[in-house]
From TrEMBL:
Protein name: alpha-L-fucosidase
Assigned keywords, A-Z: Glycosidase, Hydrolase, Signal
UniProt-listed Enzyme Commission number(s): 3.2.1.51
Organism encoding this protein: Paenibacillus odorifer
Protein family (similarity comment): Belongs to the glycosyl hydrolase 29 family.
Length: 425
């Protein structure tokens, strides 16, 4: 089964993944929480079930967009909080095979991404607004949370757990090797052993011993001795932790920030608030400079297509990655403090300077005097000279800094100009 360190080795190498939120909520196109947010009835929601046809769903296109963006793994919502399954579960009728789409959409996803050499992850909501035995009244987010009519409805939570565990077993048994199991999410007293989490984890590892699992079943992944179900990696959402994620002993823990491209996870037709390519690149660099990964989300539309805006951003990020990927893959935090003009990532004796701010005059590398063997512009291999300009000679020894002059008033790449510094061993 191996240790967490062994299991997550590839994950910390790959660094950049694609999150995909897709389901019935793409039809009303007001975000993935619509049924909960709008306290929508089951009957109303079933109208979307009756028209879900996935007519332009082509996961090969998704996979080639992910590959072109430089993403090395992907995670798809096999079931979100609404309980609708994109896979052909034997345990429910509320699934894609019974909609006009009429087929197992997860199988096609798995096959398409695997064919591109992209690691395959499955998202599964442990919350379920459709299942009769999931507590609704008084819950935090359930559509029936204020519905007096169901206040005294008898529920058998163990039956729900049997269903939930059974579906996870289906997902991990029917599609070959799965690389990531991404659970969502624990809250209040719905956490840890409430989900029979230890039993669930043991079942998962018995089927897929090498799989890595996020930390949303509960527990404390930062503890000196985390619970068995505390997960392999930490999953901050819509935030980059200021200091990365470390355990109680200050040791780095594998982590991955999941971030939306606009303001919603699921398709929202009116949400045009897309992040710029520059923001995405710098967010990714920030994650890696703190030993983390970036899981970047797309929300395909009702027909199964990614938005044009998403595809343009993925394409532009991919072009930057093609030229600068060496500063991302296999890299992590540098021992040097964050420089004032940008960030550092590092891999062995290769230090990558991500320069965001051109400033005036030469770029100053604090503490690196006499330590740089070679400096090159990463995107095209251009040699850069490391030298002390005459005007800095009087004070360059103060803290042992090095200088590199970039020609011109503009950076070669205003989004992120990467300088590869080969340090003396």
């Amino acid at each position: 089964m191996g240790t967490r360190e062994e299991r997550t080795k590839w994950f910390l190498q790959d660094r950049f993944g694609m999150f995909i939120h897709w389901g019935l909520y793409s039809i009303p196109a007001r975000g993935e929480w619509i049924r909960g947010n709008e306290r929508m009835s089951r009957e109303h929601y079933m109208t979307y079930f009756d028209e879900f046809d996935a007519s332009r769903y082509d996961p090969k296109k998704w996979a080639s967009a992910a590959k072109a963006a430089g993403q090395k793994y992907a995670v798809l919502t096999t079931k979100h909080h609404d309980g609708f399954c994109l896979f052909d579960s034997k345990l429910t009728d509320f699934k894609a095979t019974n909609t006009p789409a009429g087929r197992d959409l997860v199988r096609e996803y798995v096959d398409a991404f695997r064919a591109e050499g992209i690691a395959v992850g499955l998202y599964y909501s442990i919350i379920d607004w459709h299942h009769e035995d999931y507590p609704g009244y008084g819950d935090k987010a359930h559509p029936d949370r204020d519905n007096e009519a169901v206040k005294d409805k008898p529920i058998d939570f163990d039956r729900y757990l049997e269903y939930m565990h059974g579906q996870v077993k289906e997902l991990l048994t029917n599609y070959g090797k799965i690389d990531i199991m991404w659970f969502d999410f624990s809250y209040d007293n719905m956490t840890g052993e409430k989900w029979k989490a230890t039993e669930l984890i043991r079942m998962i590892r018995s089927i897929q011993p090498d799989i890595i699992i996020d930390n949303r079943l509960g527990g404390n992944i930062r503890a000196a001795e985390p619970e068995e179900y505390a997960g392999d990696f930490f999953s901050p959402e819509q935030i980059i932790p200021p200091g990365g994620i470390v355990d109680v002993n200050g040791q780095s823990i594998p982590w991955e920030a999941c971030i939306t491209l606009n303001d919603n996870w699921g398709y929202h037709s009116e949400d045009k608030n897309y992040k710029s390519t520059k923001q995405v690149i710098r967010t990714m660099v920030e994650c890696i400079s703190k030993n983390g990964n970036l899981l970047l989300n797309v929300g395909p539309d009702a027909k199964g297509e990614m938005t044009r805006e998403s595809l343009v951003i993925l394409d532009e990020v991919g072009e930057w990655m093609r030229l600068n990927g060496d500063s991302i893959y296999g890299c992590g935090k540098s021992l040097l403090p964050k420089p004032e003009w940008g960030r550092y990532t590092q891999k062995g004796n290769k230090l990558y300077a991500h320069v965001y701010d051109r400033g005036i005059g030469p770029i100053y590398f604090q503490g690196l005097k006499g330590k740089i063997n070679k400096a090159r512009l990463l995107r095209d291999g251009t040699e850069l000279k490391v030298e002390v300009p005459w005007m800095a000679e009087e004070y360059s020894d103060v803290d042992g800094g090095a200088f590199i002059t970039l020609k011109g008033a503009m950076l070669p790449d205003e989004m992120d100009t990467v300088i590869e510094l080969e340090l003396f061993n």
